[in-house]
Specification:
Elements: H1 2-15, H2 17-27, H3 33-64, H4 69-89, H5 102-108, H6 111-123, H7 131-152, H8 163-192
Length: 197
């Protein structure tokens, strides 16, 4: 039981529902409450599917293409840095397209999160099915979905984002950039030390 609890908190900390809620609030500027709830459900579903697939077939897919977890972390970290930079510039504000959820999904199901889930699946699975990783992802995604839904039913603002919201978006962009840099640096360090899948 302790193993499952530890795995759950590991995945939850990697997804970071609190930061996800702030990113969601920023990208959903000007949307109605029903649209925000719909987007919250879509985002949670996308995060769930990506991470469950990572737990089930992540190692096999990376091995199929000859990619190590470390190289995956470096490349994915670079993507996160780019997304964070876009948020920092304010280029993702007020979009009414479903694409506005991309920064949130890439943050929650980041290379670091995927690597963590794959690691859990490998280290906690004695059978073919990585039950601990699958259950942990489901529970952590449920918590994240609840946080996003709570943000969605909060105060809905209309119009262009003000100073506080723009500052919040810049801060979130900086956090996403920092996390991307951390994932890339960790992957590079492991690669130099001779790590891999």
């Amino acid at each position: 039981m302790t193993l499952h609890v530890q795995a759950f908190f590991t995945v939850l900390s990697l997804i970071n529902p609190f930061v996800c809620g702030m990113i969601f609030d920023n990208v959903e500027t000007g949307r109605s409450r029903s649209e925000r709830l719909s987007d919250a459900a879509k985002a949670a579903a996308a995060i769930f599917v990506i991470l469950e697939l990572a737990a089930l077939v992540g190692v096999r897919v990376l091995k199929l293409f000859g990619i190590s977890l470390d190289v995956f972390s470096i490349a994915g970290g670079g993507v996160l840095v780019w997304m964070g930079f876009s948020m920092l510039k304010g280029s993702n504000t007020g979009s009414t397209s479903g694409l506005s959820l991309t920064p949130l999904i890439l943050f929650a199901a980041s290379p670091g999160t995927i690597t963590g889930v794959i690691t859990l699946a490998v280290s906690h699975s004695r059978d073919a099915l990585p039950v601990t990783a699958l259950v942990s992802v489901a529970a952590a995604t449920l918590v994240t979905g609840i946080v996003l839904a709570a943000v969605a039913v909060g105060n809905v603002e209309t119009g262009k984002p003000g100073f506080v919201r723009a500052t919040g978006q810049s801060l979130m962009g900086l956090i996403v950039m920092a996390m991307g840099t951390q994932f890339a640096a960790q992957g590079l360090t492991n690669l130099i030390k001779g790590g891999g899948v």
